[in-house]
Amino acid sequence: MLPGVDVLRKERLPRPPGQLDDPAGPTDPVHDPDDTRPATDGSWFRSLVDRYEAPLTRYASRLTGDRERALDVVQDTFLRLFRQPRADIEAQVAQWLFTVCRNRSLDVCRKEHRMTSIDELAVAALPSAEPRPPAALQRQELLDRVLDLVGRLPPRQQECIRLKFQEGLSYKEISGITSHSVSYVGVLIHEGMKTLRARLGALTPEA
Amino acid sequence: MTTHDNHDDRDNGHERDDQHRGDDQRADESTLREPTGPLRSPDDPRLTTYALGEADTQTAALVERYLAVSPEARAALDELRTFAGLLGNELRTEHAPGLDPARRAALEQALGDGVDAGSVGNQAAVRDAGPAAAPNGSPAPTRRRSIGRLWWPALAAAALITFLFTSSWDFITRSGHWAEAAPPSAEVLAQLAREEALELEAMKRRLPLALGYLHGGSARSKAASPAPAAQAAPAPSAAGEPFTYDLFGEEAPAGAAGEALPSSQLGVPPAEAWMQPSGSQTTAGSAGAAAAAGPQASGSESVTGRGLKAGGLVAAVDPNASPAIPEQQWLQSLGYVGVAKTATTVDGGEADDARLRESPTSPSAPQPARESYAAIHENPFVPLTGDPLSALSTFGLDVDTASYANVRRFLNRNQLPPADAVRLEELVNNFDYALPQPDDKHPFAVSVESASAPWAPQHRLVRVALTGRQTVEAERPASNLVFLVDVSGSMNSADKLPLLVASLRLLVEQLGGQDRVALVTYANGTRLALPSTPGSERATILAALDGLSAGGSTHASAGIQQAYEVAKQGFLAGGNNRVLLCTDGDFNVGITTEGALEDFITGQAKSGVFLTVLGFGTGNLQDSKAEILADRGNGAYAYIDSLNEAHKVLVRNLGATLQTIAKDVKLQVEFNPGAVAAYRLLGYENRALAAQDFRDDRKDAGEMGAGHTVVAFYEVVPAGLPGLPGTADLKYQSAPPPDADGEVSPELLTVNVRYKLPDEDSGREFAVPFVDGEAGFSDASEDFRFAASVAAFGMILRDSRHRGDVDLERVHAWAAAALGSDPHGDRQEFLRLVRAAQGLVRR
Q1: Is the ipTM value over 0.90, yes or no?
Q2: pTM confidence score
Q3: For a Cys-Cys bond, which of B94, B278, B436, B530 suits B519, CB 3.0-4.6 Å?
Q4: What residues contact residue B794 under an 8 Å CB cut-off, 6+ apart?
Q5: Which of residues 187 through 206 in chain A touch B, CB cutoff 8 A?
Q6: Are the CB atoms for B578 and B481 separated by under 8 Å?
């Protein structure tokens, strides 16, 4: 923000778990304390890549609207991940990954399209590359419908709904990733769910 | 070293990313919050939060209480949970391809090569494969930059660097396996915890950010600054606690962790001089202001007006002036583009200034003045003749205090103020007086006291005082404020925009959730820098204020119209709706014809949106214009020359500044010809009204704010005296007529007051008669004597012909004997100003 005065830029470190009004402790759903931790950092990173490459790609695709660029963003995200000291981010690696992915995606978009806010992003449904087996057609219809409706939500609601239901992140993590307040995240998700229920109910009375 | 590379990535991972938030998002967030209080409907977002298992204990308690009483809510909860399950199921099955094999291989390579110093080259190669990844440069400059970017308290920085160095040696000697070196987790986490606590503290204490950075950077300033500024800020910055920063990605300004940085790196801002209460620094304060204004501006302050004894142009060199360069560095560090060397307006504004200037040009001024003051023709003695109109003195109220602050500014710089800048009523009204409070009938009380005039003992001095009702802060009606801020290039000096931002921050700290604040800037165009935001969103508002930077010339823009628009959009019925125009004198707010601007503001005031003008800086102050606009806008005009004054206007007297309890307040004093031979009103020259205007409700007059006290002095020549000088031999003056009963009334005068309640248009009136006593000056109350000495001071500064033989030494003596408790030091400061003037006045 300030020209040429790097000395004043603030360092940001991840919030250690359990510091802020969080009696439940770390909420990272992938961090299962009973898991035996990978012995080395290298294998830990690999496990993260395995676990998160798909969700991150999905997330980044939505934000950038372009699969290729999304893949670049995800690769970049992981490269940055590898340079983090494991102990620092281990407790909230999901939030870290999604935040970096989001920031990089928005940067890419801004650079390419001069967009300044997530509201201006083309958040469109991406076609599935796999063929659909006919037996699962009805199931697929519902999924398509849900995806279609979610894709039509206002961008901020859509992002929060996906982070919450698709990626399983907590309000707190979503707040950290998107820079919304936790309260606002709650409102966004509430509004989004309300809209979805209304529209879905109109389409599928039995759902 | 890769460990230092990490600081870049931490930024990307966790910085609260302001660049990704738009105005609309902030606006949205401000209007859409989870409600508070008990739940009332199943549509409450908190029910959803609870359904998803995200409610904290407090919210959960509220929800459960609601569920217990509402079957509708329980049904809704079930539906929510079901739907959440469905949504989750569906969305999670969405096809999610992972990385393609090529990229996967690149990642594998990055992992396999480890993360030593040697791997950075590989990473660069890997990055080339991914064009979207922005390279962060070679390790060495990154490392230097990382160290340079470490904004830690010195102690913690040393500890952390030591730790990282220690642990990183392990990484160098081993190859690629981090886990085998003992990770400094405990230490780092402890550091994180400390930082976390500091961040939270910073969130809670935004005011110290303003005062802290202004006082920081110099132990001298901390030592010198006394109570008033520090009162508002708990000690942290003064105590040397590591300065903290906020969550919105703002850069902490230079002086903040002054302990950590050598002053040569960022410069000790000389402009901090204006942060000192005027009482503690005289020449140093003037040096700061002089340095800020620059030599050119000082030179250009040969203002019009009579009585400038210091001799026109003032030499710019002040022995205590700090060099301009540190100030430039400081301004640069605050992000103000194009550091100003002087406070003059850019050329584009000069022609406008010439148009706006109102005072009659004085042929003796060697150079066109940049500051303008309306000429004041002092009220003469009015003899009571047989004409009834001569017995009536009518004027409108004035609660502005700008003149006192302005006079102080001059005296602090060892200059005499121009006579036209000295408005007696504003000098006297600058002080608080202990006066009887009003009862419930009227919003203010009138009290009259008399004694002999100290400068002319055979004359009586009558003080008429109006005391406005105090309001309890809790009952203060909601405020809808729009700051209209001049961000033209001329504001680019330390005593202007930075002081303005600091002052407005003080104000914002006083506001609450029921208040609203918006920010409109004008310079090269108008910008809505902050839409109307509830006062509880303090961080947002403060962030918008801090984002102001000066630049550009003041071309005509729609600033004022937009400001009023925004105010009207957020109009609070029954509340206080106000535009606060903050400027150093440029009134190019969109309406360029003076008359049209005044008419516009008058019209807006009728619609219930009032205008307060806050003046800043030197060299361009269009004092006359500001006062007129504030008057038309049913508001007040204050001149802010220091953070202390800002605190006085915007914190101490917040109720008065923000809340009008009566508008168009007029006084008409009727003198008894049987008791009075002549009278003279001290001050209020530019508030004079014709007698018939008193009951004319269309005539605009001054406004009273909550808690205001307003004082007017009359110097009265009692009947029976030989009369005024030169009138002893008049032949045709008749004797005073007796009243209806054939007796001469014992009353000296009657004060008639007329006012309107803020939302009414018809006036109310009441009268207070007064019978004079025989009190001599020394018998008068302390407040009376102090106020009289201030009036005498003003008369000397104006070289009034009515001053008699009073001199500043006697003024000082009278004031010193009447200091009273002086809780804020205002009266002490006055004594200091008297001493300062003593050195400048020839007689």
Answers
A1: no
A2: 0.45
A3: B530
A4: B422, B423, B424, B427, B428, B682, B683, B800
A5: 187-191, 193-194, 196-197
A6: yes
